[in-house]
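thread: overnight batch results

M.L. [08:02]
morning all. the overnight job finished for the chain we discussed friday. pasting input first so we're all looking at the same thing
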Amino acid sequence: MSETTKTIKSMLEKGQDPKEFLIEVCRPECLKVFEKLQRCEVALKNMTNADPELSCMYPLRDWVTCIDGCVIFYFIYRFNPKSTPNLSVTERDLSHDVYKK
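M.L. [08:03]
and the structure it wrote out:
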């Protein structure tokens, strides 16, 4: 059992919500999407005559979706594999990240 799984189990036994912990665990998985958001924010700040309607909403949405998806995926498939009895999940299946493009 990994340290992360032990921590989640301990938090659940204490009645704590592990979502904030899992968000921190998932941040490195979504690093490329976060870097894209940061590039957008820097570019927007550097525009002198920027249209006030411009924003980085789509890169922000992509980053939040990546983090949220990772948290859900981690909790369901890595921590609680019994929740999907008809699905065989291996470490190899979990190792690829669709957001690392």
